[in-house]
Amino acid sequence: MIQLFHVSKDYEGGVPALADLSFKIEKGEFVFVTGSSGAGKSTLLNVIFGSEQATSGQVIVDGRNYSRLPAREVPGLRRKIGFIFQDFKLINTKSVFDNVALTLRILGLGNAEIRSRVMKALTYVNLKHRANFKPLMLSGGEQQRVAVARALVKDPAILLADEPTGNLDPELALKMMQLFQEVNSRGTTVVIATHDQAMIDRMGKRTINLHGGRLTRR
Amino acid sequence: MISTTAMIYTVIDGLRGLRENIVTTVLSSLTVAFALAIFSLFIIIFANLNSFVEGMGDRTHIVAYVKDGALSTKNGVDEKAVEKVYKSVAGLAGVVSVEYISKKDAFKILKTEMKDNQALLEGVSPDILPASFEIRLAADKITAKDIRLVVESLKDKPWVEDIQHGTEWAERFGAILGFMEAAAIFLGLFLGGATIFIISNTIRLAVYARRDEIEIMRYLGAPNIYIKTPFLIEGIAEGAIGGLIALVALFVGDLVLGIYIPKELVFILDNPFSLLLLFILLLLGGLILGVVGSIFSLGRFLKV
Hints:
The structure holds two protein chains of two kinds. By secondary structure, chain A is of the alpha/beta class. Chain A is built from seven helices and ten strands. Chain A has helices at 41-49, 74-78, 96-107, 111-124, 140-152, 170-185, 197-203, and strands spanning 2-11, 15-25, 30-34, 56-61, 64-65, 81-84, 158-162, 189-193, 206-211, 214-217. In chain A, the strands form two sheets. A six-stranded mixed β-sheet of chain A has the order 6-7-8-3-9-10, sandwiched between helices. In chain A, strands 2-1-4-5 form a four-stranded antiparallel β-sheet, with helices on one face. In chain A, helix 3 packs across helix 4 (111-124), helix 3 (96-107) packs parallel to helix 5 and helix 4 (111-124) packs across helix 5 (140-152). By secondary structure, chain B is α+β, with helices and mostly antiparallel strands. Chain B folds into two domains: 4-54 and 172-301, no CATH class; 61-165, 2-Layer Sandwich (Alpha-Beta Plaits). Chain B has nine helices and six strands, in the order ααβββαβαβαβαααα. In chain B, the strands form two sheets. Chain B has a four-stranded antiparallel β-sheet with strand order 4-5-1-6. In chain B, a hairpin with a 2-residue loop joins strand 2 and strand 3. Chain B starts with a helix and ends with a helix. The A-B interface holds A 49, 51, 72, 75-81, 83, 85, 89-94, 102-103, 105-110, 150 and B 2-6, 9, 20, 212-213, 215-224, 226.
């Protein structure tokens, strides 16, 4: 499902973020990417998502090699991926409902189906009662859960999550993890970047460990 | 590809954008309306003056005055000589009609024209007025050059005393119309360019205001057409609204200017097109300005 061959990523000024990464994540796998701050977790997720280009190496997602993927085909691939951003990336002028619905509107679903799926997703993240609120009226934890609902509502083939429980209390964080596990059990490949070691230990899943952009465990 | 449902959402989104950016929408629409109304007014005046000049074909004529005694005998008019001249003049290229106005006829006409001042003509002999040939040219032969050709072939005739014609007038009017035509093209290009610039900047501002939303839509996998369509709809709507405002402004302007313009000149404001055609032209003009402005802006500021 996701393959990386000798992938490196340097930022401006030659600052290395990822160095010679090679690994494979199978379809339906549940993987944690871990490491300390600045280890390259977010960069790795961005490279897999295609929002950042690798400086060298090959990134293959769902059988498509980013280095050979025409720009017009990128949106099609992204529609198969759900991404929970660390900074949530919610549209502040739209309601919680519209934020979650947008992803289904882009897929071209009808109104009735959108309503039913959005309300179901908001119920999963305990935010049904906040459907008409604007993001800025919500707490950080609630905004994070909106981002989770938006990523899950389209039943993505791949779920990428960057610190998805960073703003949640332990109880809610565990609930979110259970939700990701449930999604995974339905066939979605899940890749979660986190530095919450206790959570990683509790879940007992495969871990890709980064240090200074290099792989230390896979 | 984008589904029909997704396309409907983008159209709704574009219309919502109009409402959310109501101030810029109103200003852009008024700019379109102003440009279209000014340009249309200019075209209407130009079209009316042009058709007025074309109508001059009936009125533009040449008058050849006859030398005293040239076409007469002791007993009066020499009918045979008049007939001969008549035939030779009628045979000239471009001439559609020739009328002989004798001294008596000329005096009768003068009397009719001066019916309120008959006393002035008391004791005046009809002989003081010259006889003449009134020559009318075909409607397509009223350019200065064509009039001059006929005049040239008449002026050396022995019976001709003097020739009056509208060459100079036609030349001047033709020059004014030529200038107006060039001015209309310049004005159209200038106003069109300025309007496209303003619309493109309005869309640019809208793109800038929604840049975070655009970035998020890209991350969610929205195709280019899905991202661009709402802005295109905004431009189209601003153009169309501007076209409709221009139509109303022209009607109101016609009513107001009609009060202040002298009666003899009111014809320059007559709508030479049908109401439906004017409506379609203004709407189409607004749409074209809106679409071009949006596309120009999206091409430059929304490379996705």
